[in-house]
Amino acid sequence: xxxxxxxxxxxxxxxxxxxxxxxxxxxxxxxxxxxxxxxxxxxxxxxxxxxxxxxxxxxxxxxxxxxxxxxxxxxxxxxxxxxxxxxxxxxxxxxxxxxxxxxxxxxxxxxxxxxxxxxxxxxxxxxxxxxxxxxxxxxxxxxxxxxxxxxxxxxxxxxxxxxxxxxxxxxxxxxxxxxxxxxxxxxxxxxxxxxxxxxxxxxxxxxxxxx
Length: 211
Fold this sequence. Notes:
single chain, 6 helices, 10 strands, 24% strand
């Protein structure tokens, strides 16, 4: 078992320490005695209320999710905010550095490789985004693609992508609600961004029949 796998199991135990009934009421989640249900980036997801295990529905079957980024994002979105009332979205999009005072705030190095990967594949990228529940929006700031993803039913992110040309390289940005720091730890924005872009890459390859 590697460190990431170990952290997934540690996360289960921490999740079980939280008040699940308050969590369900606060975020208006579907639940029964055994499981909490919620979609995550367009994929049906459920949490075992006795073990804390997260499962995703793929290929007509439920499978335990051991992806560190996915698991930590789901747990943090459900557990980070204190109090019985859900935090409120501002409706204003911003870069991650807007709500961080200290620490690393630039993600350009990470997103550049995905921008290069997506370049010249705009229509396939749109289709891939929609398989993750992405909603293609009218163009903003000249971007060739502006797409909103509801990570969970109560928390969205915005992706913008510009194709490259003779003057400028391709560019990709993930934007956040200005109140994101009320929903999750700063570190979790990196987990979520990586998870979203990896899922987009995989969906793009599937759409194009690329292994």
